[in-house]
Amino acid sequence: MVLINGKKEQAAGKTIAGIVEEYNYDIKTIAVELNEEIVSKCDYSKTILKEDDVVEVVSFVGGG
Question: Model's pTM, two decimal places?
Answer without folding.
Answer: 0.89
